[in-house]
Amino acid sequence: MRRTVQFQAPERGAERESRQGEKRQPEPLRTEFGFELPRGYVDESGTVHRSGVMRLATARDELVPLRDDRVRENSAYLSVVLISRVVTRIGTVEDIHPGVIEDLFASDLAFLQDFYRRINAEGHTRAAVNCPSCHEEFTVDLAGGRLGES
Prior knowledge:
Elements: E1 7-8, H1 13-16, E2 28-29, E3 32-42, E4 48-55, H2 59-63, H3 69-73, H4 78-86, E5 87-90, H5 98-102, H6 106-122, E6 126-130, E7 137-141
Antiparallel strand pairs: 1-2, 3-4, 4-5, 6-7
């Protein structure tokens, strides 16, 4: 089942007024997040799919996999089942099931696990990083471009 819901996030003190004292509109709660896989899912015809969508997880998404026999036999399989429940699309593939996630490259699975953690625990897809040359801090959006692009 696919749902898209827009909620109004509660305002925080700093969000109520900008630096100039003007009222700001709070951003609505995002429930779906686009992403770009580092390598991409290769389907049975050899087509590579890189862009996709992940939705926020529900409590049910985290509980149902615990009843899955594959997870009971091998706890490492939990992330495969969980990721397959919250990824709604990879390229043109919309039937995302554990078999699709199993066929991802390890770097793509690791990316999706981190992406899941970021949007569900931290509420965004941004990461603070430091430039290795000049040591300046800046923020990157992990949902953005391909690996190595800025």
